[in-house]
Amino acid sequence: MRALGRSERKWARRADAHIAVSKALAAWLGREWGVQATVVYDRPAAFFAKPSLEASNDLWQRLAKDLHLGPRRIPLVVCPTSWTPDEDFDLLLESLERTERALVSRRGKGDVSSPDLAVLLTGRGHLRPDFEKRLARRDFKRVAVRTVWLEPNDYPVLVGMADAGLCLHQSSSGLDLPMKLADFRGVGIPVCAFDYAPVIAEALTPGHEGLTFRDPGELAHVLSALADADLSVVPMFAASRTWLAANPPERWEQEWTAKAPSFLG
Predict the structure, then answer these.
(1) Where in the sequence of the chain do the CATH 3.40.50.2000 domains occur?
(2) Which of 5, 191, 236, 254 has its CA 20 to 30 A from that of 65?
(3) What CA–CA distance (Å, rounded) separates 165 from 85?
(4) Is the full-model pTM beyond 0.90?
(5) Which fold has domain 53-246?
(6) How far apart, in Å, are the Cα atoms of 54 and each of 70, 155, 157, 162?
(7) What is the pLDDT of residues 102-151, one digit of tens each?
């Protein structure tokens, strides 16, 4: 690893230009390697936009049937994941258990033909089978937790029809930003993101793009509020919905057009 690091630093100093995904990374490159990098943020592609009501209803009906989500439309949380150790699934399971207990304490285990909240985890990866085994041992009634793999055309629709996004990303370097935050920003839904390092403030301002959490209890508090459709208990999340509706996202084309001339000449 040390040899690789020396090689990267050597060749980086010989490059004509450098791009960094965050100000934190650009500062590190300047401090450690003596190079100046232009910050180019990830921005949503044009196809990450609010889907039509028809597209949303069609996808929901298919998912509800295939995933046994019940006859009525329920609040939906989408968690894109690559199923790697960079995401804390222990924290997620603990949050889901707390949410389940909170909902059962208020509503009991009566009619559960439709759960109160759907949490869909998308993607594939080597940690997914283990999570599914652990999930199967939980007797969730009020919270429907499902793992799904979607066709490319369906993924933006799912993200756009969700009530909230969930980001479990943790950066080993503390210098990068989760790409999925750009997806959520594109469709205009607030996100609950794990607060793994100060760098996340470059992409998420509480009350604007969403809010952050640091432990299972904080996440469970938001999930319970979503299930109850009562965001008065999480005013920062309610404020985010208002802010997102009033502030259209900057798109990738705009970011590239603005930044590229500085390093392409």
Answers:
(1) 53-246
(2) 191
(3) 20
(4) yes
(5) Rossmann fold (3.40.50)
(6) 19, 15, 10, 14
(7) 999 987 766 666 899 999 999 999 999 999 999 999 989 999 999 999 99
